[in-house]
Specification:
The protein is built from 4 helices and 24 strands. The protein has 474 residues and is mostly beta strands.
């Protein structure tokens, strides 16, 4: 696994998930469109410490782009509550106490002997009803001297989360920018970092540059089984392995994804992306080569021979809509163009054969046609896709993806489950509510055509397993 993504993930993990602000979460605020002001109140109004908290929050919120509400104006309400305040045992903290106290604050550890202040913040909507958000601040030291800082930190943290959620209609979930193989119309949140590994060979790193722009990097290898057509669309190229043993593809992909239209209650979200994709590999076992192209699976495609590499321009258009039932529907298409601007060594020629349809080898896939004409580049390829995800809980969801092809027997679909384990509260120095692991367990399905010579009198479904893991740092 490359070292750079690990270093980046470590820095982001400790930079984003530690500190005195231990937890911050805000629900989607798009239903309150037009409300741009906040008023700050304390549950202990007669307390001097509470007054300093309020004053600090009134400084922190404008730093995140929110203004204080005028009298009678519709506004959000930020309630501040002193959950615990412990005066230090010693009247004056020694240098050692200050250092140890700072380490405990950074790590989120309690140390009442050196003093402790814990403050809870609750965000309510203009109607004053159920809580829309919450944050918690905890630090070691004298409560009287920490109150102002706590207010500033909480105001800024809640305000930043409110800004992020201002245009959101539906709650964000870890890994919601993709299903198993296909993208959704969402991007990685602003400032969030993703590190994932699929099939133990393909590493992906992604970063939310802005709220609507995402950077992707795919690097590694991808085993493509010959059985069932040997087809995999990852990260979008439609590829197939030749030979009885399949193929091993190396993949390098650098892409940008942009949300062109944000989803609302009535309008679906639309995202577009461009990927510079380089695919390289060699067939494993048997004859044949490496086939690339959606139509190739129908026996009229193209194949690159040997260990060649090819560079593609991959364009993706995705639309997605969430519903109140917890269902998400996505629809999109890939457009694969082979007008390479990087050097490529692949030579494409006509492909013959499709998995399970020729000879006695059940794993046969696309192979070079006798007398086929070499092509300067692969013709333009198009592949549509759609998917449905059903959210079962905060941690679990199931999904189905379909990549329709002609003939229909070459259609590929996936079924699987996604698990997002994690916690809603910090543990020690790590704010686990900002760290979301992802575990995908899926099966990719195709129909293996009838072939009496291969001992298959009837068409039958075949599948291969797909396992993906990831870590999302918000």
């Amino acid at each position: 696994m490359p070292k750079l993504p690990l270093v980046m993930a470590t820095l982001l993990l400790f930079g984003c998930a530690t500190g005195a602000v231990r937890q911050t979460r805000v629900a989607p605020l798009a239903p309150y469109e037009g409300v741009r002001a906040v008023r700050v109140v304390a549950t202990e109004p007669d307390s001097q410490m509470a007054a300093e908290l309020v004053a600090g929050a009134r400084v922190g919120l404008p730093k995140a782009g929110w203004r204080m509400a005028n009298d009678g104006e519709p506004a959000y309400t930020l309630e501040l509550h002193i959950a615990e305040a412990q005066t230090p045992v010693a009247a004056e903290a020694s240098l050692q106490d200050q250092i140890l106290g700072g380490m405990a604050t950074f790590g989120g550890f309690r140390n009442v002997e050196r003093g402790l202040l814990e403050v809870e913040a609750t965000l309510r909507g203009p109607d004053g009803g159920a809580a829309l958000g919450a944050s918690r601040w905890q630090a070691v030291g004298s409560p009287a001297s920490l109150a102002g800082t706590a207010g500033i930190d909480l105001g800024r943290a809640v305000g930043k989360a409110m800004t992020t959620q201002q245009s959101e209609w539906y709650p964000r979930r870890g890994a919601d920018e993709r299903l198993f193989f296909t993208p959704t119309a969402r991007t990685v949140p602003d400032g969030a970092f993703v590190l994932s590994d699929d099939e133990a060979l393909l590493v992906r790193a992604a970063y939310g540059i802005t709220r609507r722009l995402q950077l992707d990097l795919w690097l590694g290898g991808l085993p493509v089984p010959a059985v069932g057509g040997g087809a995999l669309p990852l990260p979008g190229a439609i590829v197939a392995g030749g030979g009885g043993g399949g193929a091993l593809f190396g993949v390098f992909d650098l892409g940008l994804k942009f949300v062109a239209l944000e989803e609302t209650r009535k309008v679906p979200g639309i995202a577009i992306s461009y990927d510079m994709l380089d695919v390289f590999g060699t067939a494993i076992g048997g004859g044949g080569g490496v086939g690339i192209g959606g139509s190739g699976l129908g026996g009229v495609g193209f194949v690159g021979i040997g260990g060649a590499n090819a560079q593609f321009n991959l364009f993706t258009l995705t639309a997605g809509k969430h519903f109140s039932t917890g269902t998400q529907v996505t629809l999109g298409a890939w457009l694969l163009d082979n007008h390479a601007f990087l050097p490529q060594s692949a030579h494409f020629t006509s492909a013959c054969g499709v998995a399970g349809s020729t000879g006695t080898t059940s794993g046969a896939a696309m192979t070079k046609c006798s007398g086929g004409t070499d092509l300067p580049h692969l013709p333009l390829q198009f592949q549509s896709f759609f998917g449905v995800e059903q959210i079962l809980s905060d941690s679990w969801s199931v999904a189905v993806e379909v990549l329709p092809r002609y003939p229909l027997s070459n259609t590929m679909w996936t079924t699987g489950v996604r698990w997002l384990p994690g916690s809603d509260a910090p543990a020690g120095f790590v704010a686990l509510d900002r760290i979301k692991p992802r575990i995908d367990l899926a099966l990719a399905w195709m129909i293996l055509e009838a072939n009496a010579d291969a001992g298959r009198p009837h068409a039958s479904p075949v599948y291969f397993p797909w396992i993906g893991v990831g870590l999302y740092v918000w």
